[in-house]
Specification:
The complex is a heterodimer.
Chain A (H helix, E strand, L loop, with lengths): L1 H6 L1 H19 L3 H23 L11 H6 L12 H31 L4 H15 L2
Chain B lengths: L8 H5 L1 H18 L3 H25 L7 E4 L10 E4 L1 H28 L5 H20 L3 H20 L7 H31 L4 H8 L6 H18 L7 H8 L2 H26 L5 H27 L4 H21 L3 H32 L10 H4 L1 H15 L5 H16 L2 H26 L16 H19 L2 H20 L1
Antiparallel strand pairs in B: 1-2
Classes of the chains: A mainly alpha, B mainly alpha.
């Protein structure tokens, strides 16, 4: 059992982070904490991609220009996979943009309701509905 | 590359990328010019250019099995990013850009009524980014690129929904809920794509389809499919994952609701079709099992529960939003059948639902401009005050119920036919029960519109509906009738789309 986990240590960490993030999104009533959970969840996916790019014994896929032009790349050398890193750079940008829009919305919610807790917002909405009459 | 049929050849050759790039590039000048009118003009021209490209692509893919492949930056497909257009997404692109143009015509009076003057050009700019993202989702042939476009379309959408806060602060919390759920959905999709990449080492959808044929029993691939289905289900508001939708539709500005209801969930739904039938082969056991034992029961539950929830709403737009969730159930049911007839019925309902919800939400937008109507009891007597708008609304409602000679009838007819061919009597029963519920919730609005007398004092407020709203509204309402009587063109499009979705996966 220990061996199985130890061999897949990276995946164990990723799964724990994923669950922590998802749990935080669902369980908390505080909008900021919910965004924090969302960020942890997204970061765990970044780690998933990064860890699958690792090839054991692989070297960074950086070529000398002369070798590349002359097609003298040694077929014996094992390279790591650079593609997931590129993908995750894009995904990080997307995550930052989502977080920024989310935080901006929380600021607006706080201005409009004076609260960033779910139950307080729900109570304010309920009171508003009662005032207008259903 | 097919030679251009009506655009100049040089443009036609680059139509796939122009369709996405033009709205994206035009969003910058729309944001810089700080007048609403200029922003609107730029947005409309961007949407019109995108529509031109979509028509070109649509015509070029009419031939059986015609596929347009566009290698971005000249990097050939499995290595570079590919834009790939076939019968399925050509139809979707036409629907998307057509709906965007009509919604934009509707937008000018509506946005001037609902959005502050200094925010209008930014509003149109965000809309253009969102349109570009949706077009990108529909056109791309690369699984990771699809995620990026999904988020490009979603992030401005959160901002657009939050712009409804001028009238109702609940728009903010709705937008926040949508953001959290949308981000979780997109992340689930990325996890799924990651699993597929682990198993196959490729991100190109056509290449994935080729490699996945031999990987039927692979557990990593199955997990990938599960994550992708749930993630896109969140974006498409499938029944138990729909909680963001009613709030977002009810409190967003009218124009945003029209645009979202006709396009955003439809695009997510297209991606589900693309992945279930094209990328994963439908004849592999786990896809069929997932569709039959997971998607179909949820679709049926959604059709009935969401329709029942719609019965108890007081806010007109909230009512129609729940009805949208129920209608998404119809589309999922067609998909759940896993047969070509079922997918074809699902795609047909997708197009038709865009037509009817476009009319309904536009008419509500017109009511909101003239009288600020949001609730059902406030609709009293509007039939006499705004006969054209109310008539269009009525046509849309009849189409939603599925009265003969409207498009709603056509798609329900094909759906029932496909269910009977499958021997699924329970599905037929569910369609009929949901339609009866639709009669009741539409009845509640229509009675208030036409039967109850005009309340005192309302007559003085009478305002004519602006022409810019009437033109797209009446056009869409007539389309509901015309395609309801003369259904052949839409049925043909849906059948080509279904054939492209199912045969592309096994054929290539």
């Amino acid at each position: 059992m220990i061996e199985i986990v130890a061999e897949r240590f990276n995946y164990a960490v990723i799964i724990i982070l994923m669950m922590v993030g998802l749990y935080a999104v669902i369980a908390t009533g505080n909008l900021i904490k919910r965004l924090v959970g969302l960020s942890i969840f997204q970061t765990s996916v970044f780690l998933l991609y990064i860890s699958i790019a690792k090839v054991f014994g692989g070297v960074p896929p950086i070529f000398d220009y002369k070798e590349l032009v002359g097609y003298k790349i040694d077929p014996e050398v094992v390279y790591s996979n650079p593609l997931p890193h590129v993908l995750i750079l894009t995904a990080i940008v997307v995550g930052v943009a989502t977080l920024a829009v989310g935080l901006a919305l929380v600021v607006r919610i706080r201005e409009a309701y004076g609260a960033i807790e779910d139950h307080a917002i729900a109570e304010a909405d309920y009171a508003f509905e009662l005032e207008k009459g259903f | 590359m097919t030679v251009g049929q009506w655009l100049p050849t040089a443009l036609a050759a680059h139509a796939p990328v122009l369709l996405v790039a033009v709205p994206l590039i035009l969003s910058t000048p729309a944001a810089i010019l700080r007048t609403g009118r200029a922003g609107w003009a730029i947005a409309l021209s961007g949407a019109l250019l995108a529509l031109l490209c979509a028509v070109e692509l649509f015509l070029a893919t009419r031939a059986d099995g015609a596929v347009i492949s566009y290698a971005l930056g000249g990097w050939p497909p499995p290595f570079g990013i590919e834009f790939r257009v076939d019968g399925l997404n050509a139809a979707l692109l036409l629907l998307l850009t057509g709906a965007a143009v009509l919604a934009l015509i509707f937008a000018r009076p509506s946005v001037e009524n609902e959005i502050n003057a200094d925010k209008r050009s930014l509003f149109y700019s965000a809309f253009l980014v969102s349109l570009s993202g949706l077009a990108g989702v529909a056109i791309t042939g690369d699984a990771f690129n699809l995620f990026v476009f999904l988020e490009i379309s979603s992030i401005p959408t959160y901002a657009l929904i939050a712009m409804g806060a001028n009238r109702d602060r609940r728009a903010l919390t709705s937008a926040f809920n949508y953001l959290v759920m949308g981000a979780i959905g997109a992340t689930f999709f990325v996890i799924g794509v990651g699993f597929l990449y682990m198993a196959t080492g490729t991100l190109n959808m056509a290449d994935l389809a080729r490699l996945l044929v031999d990987m039927d029993g692979d557990r990593v691939v199955r997990m990938g499919f599960a994550f992708i289905l749930v993630g896109l289900g969140l974006k498409a508001a499938l029944f138990p994952l729909h909680l963001w939708l009613p709030g977002a539709y009810a409190y967003a500005p009218s124009f945003v609701t029209v645009f979202l209801a006709t396009t955003a969930t439809k695009v997510a739904f297209y991606v589900i079709i693309r992945f279930s039938f094209d990328v994963f082969a439908i004849d592999s056991g786990f896809v069929v099992n997932a569709l039959t034992y997971v998607v179909t029961p949820l679709a049926i539950a959604g059709m009935i529960v969401a329709s029942a929830q719609a019965l108890f709403q007081t806010d007109v737009r909230r009512l129609l939003a729940y009805s949208s969730v129920a209608q998404a159930g119809y589309m999922m049911l067609g998909l759940g059948m896993g047969s070509q007839a079922g997918v074809s019925a699902g795609v047909l309902h997708l197009i038709n639902h865009a037509l009817m919800k476009g009319v309904l939400f536009m008419a509500l937008g017109a009511f909101a401009i003239s009288y600020g109507v949001r609730r059902i009891e406030n609709c009293k007597g509007l039939g006499m005050m705004m006969p054209m708008t109310a008539s269009a609304f009525t046509l849309g409602a009849l189409s939603l119920i599925g009265v003969p000679f409207t498009v709603g009838f056509i798609s329900k007819f094909y759906l029932i036919q496909a269910a009977l061919a499958q021997g699924w009597i329970f599905a037929v029963a569910a369609i009929l029960i949901s339609s009866v519920l639709a009669v009741f919730y539409c009845y509640r609005i229509l009675v208030n519109l036409w039967v109850t007398p005009i309340p005192e004092g309302r007559r003085d407020l009478a305002q004519p509906t602006p022409y810019l709203i009437l033109v797209p509204l009446v056009g869409l309402a007539l389309a509901n009738l015309v395609f309801g009587v003369h259904a052949a063109p839409l049925v043909d499009i849906a059948e080509t789309a279904a054939a492209a979705a199912i045969n592309a996966g096994t054929g290539s």
